[in-house]
Amino acid sequence: METGKKKKSPMQWARSRKGQQILISIAFIAIPLLLLFVFTYLPFGQMVKFSFYKMKYTTPADKRVFVGWKNYLDVFRRDDCFGALKLSLFYVVGAILQLVLALYLATILSFKVKGGNFFKGLMFFPYLISGIAIGFIFKFFYTRGFVFDTILQWCGFQLDNLPYWLKDQKINNWSLVATSVWRYFGQNMVLFIGAIMSVDADLYEAADLDGANKFQQFIHIILPSIKTIVTLNVILSITGSLSAFEQPYVITDGANGTGTYFVIMNEIAHTSQKVGLASAMAVVLLLIIFACTILQKLFFKYIFRDAESEDESYAAKKARLKAEKAQKKAQKGVA
Amino acid sequence: MVNVGKKSYSPLGILWIIVEYVSLIFFGLCAVVPVISCVITAFKTSEEYQQTNVMTLPESWLNFDNFTKAFEAANMGRAFLNSVIVMVCVLIVSVILGTQLAYVLNRFKFPGNTLIRNLYLFASLLPAVAMQVTVFNIMSALHLVNSLAGYIIMMCGTDVISIYIFIQFMENIPVSLDESAIIDGASYWTIYWKIMLPLLKPAIVTSCILKGVGVYNEYYCANLYLMDKKLHTIARCLYTFVGPMGSQYNLICAGVIISLLPALIVFILCQKQIYSGIAAGAVKG
Hints:
The complex is a heterodimer of chains A (335) and B (285). Chain A is mostly helical and 335 residues long. Chain A has a domain at 79-303: MetI-like fold (Orthogonal Bundle), CATH 1.10.3720.10. Helix content of chain A is 75%, strand content 1%. Chain A has helices at 2-5, 10-15, 17-50, 70-77, 79-110, 116-124, 131-142, 147-154, 172-197, 201-209, 214-242, 246-252, 261-270, 275-302, 305-334, and strands at residues 53-54, 65-66. A two-stranded antiparallel sheet of chain A has the order 1-2. In chain A, helix 3 (17-50) packs across helix 14 (275-302). Chain B has a domain at 89-248 and 256-284: Orthogonal Bundle (MetI-like fold), CATH 1.10.3720. Chain B has helices at 11-42, 46-51, 65-73, 76-107, 113-125, 128-141, 148-157, 161-171, 175-183, 188-199, 201-217, 220-225, 234-237, 249-269, 271-284. The longest helix of chain B has 32 residues, at 11-42. Chains A and B meet through helix 3, helix 5, helix 6, helix 7 and helix 8 of A and helix 1, helix 4, helix 5, helix 6 and helix 7 of B.
């Protein structure tokens, strides 16, 4: 430490341990931080600023009109903006069904079943298909008289009694939600299987010996040990539902009352070029997402004290290791 | 004691086993039927497609006409090339930048360390679609619109999950390794390059698979920033089918199947890594 205070030539400083550490830190951090700034924080700042202006992308900087809070008021006043938020409720319901389904299947697959890996693969694969391909697959799937209708006819339904899955406003949002569930439930399931597998296998054996059936095992062993990841996913699914975008964007393009908040925002930004209003919409949604995230933190802090304290001991251990390391370094410095 | 060797099934147990398999088969079918219907249609000639029901099997499973037609119509060869270029560049750059950043954040203590971590944490909350409202403006200002390089730079810049995977993995690499290397006179660069990078291999594989799938399937930004036909990636070039060929589903399905074949192959080859990647990415994601 004392050596640092003495005046050294830059070359000497660069050769010292401390100097090397600083140089390599700067070299390693500079580019990622620059990218982070240019593609996340600069746009974020611009977004907040633009939300107070009436402007297009092509409007030169001096022609933009400052409109104060008008854009924000419009977000809540315009039916197409605020009404679209209500559509998220469909997606919230879908997301919860999806989690229940994923948990159910994950439980089945965690015990020994024949062909378990095969089924797991089948159900997971949709997650790897691109959104646009899914769009085509399901446009085809839901078209009148096509795949879905044919299957229902096999099951004894009459074609005349079936609705138009993508046009009928009573049902079309559910059709899109089902697509979203189809795409993501396998991913959720794999996640839950991972969590269930990390439970000590002895617990199941002991439970088996005690004569507990699978349902009891689920309630008393599996559920308590994965409640953290389940809750995390419930909260994530709420923020995910608010930002539902891909399915309506590629399948219906927001037609017939299926335009979710982001579909409308995308249209306002890139088609009507009302950049100010779109920015205000984005900021409003970000605020809601932050609120959810804070709630999540509080929830984990006060409801899941146990899980948290584990984390704390882990953090404490890390801090101790770090302190030891620092001490060693200091000793080396003295020597 | 009689029951120890052989497991006896109660009626309830048998019922449960039936329910298990019925659910697995039902939801397994739900997952594949939409894709299967696409495969069936992709093998049909236009007349067949118009005259038969969509779920009727095609006359010939060797009719690859739709595939070649779709491949040419959407210029998929070029699109595959572009996708490969984008993927290779994005993966290399983001692995290098990600591991370097993770190395510094995990191994060195300096003022601002927590701040940087929090900046990334905060960035992970921002939904990509919302950000594009103003990222578009910046991309235009930097003249990065309609250029493959611009798209690649943007994709590298918005990468948060893999940094977490690297940091997490690095926490399990003992610091004593670094220390003994330092005693041997190794520079920090040598430690990063010769010790950390090789040890991080599993994490790198995981993040490459996750990010690779993400990049391969990304279409929203590609649609926004790559207008030129020569620059289309695979996901983007599927849009070609929206306009004039909008109702020729036998062609569209063939295009869709072509586009998801690489994902299927990677999935069959790397199932394990993909599953563990999902678990790793979810902890902080």
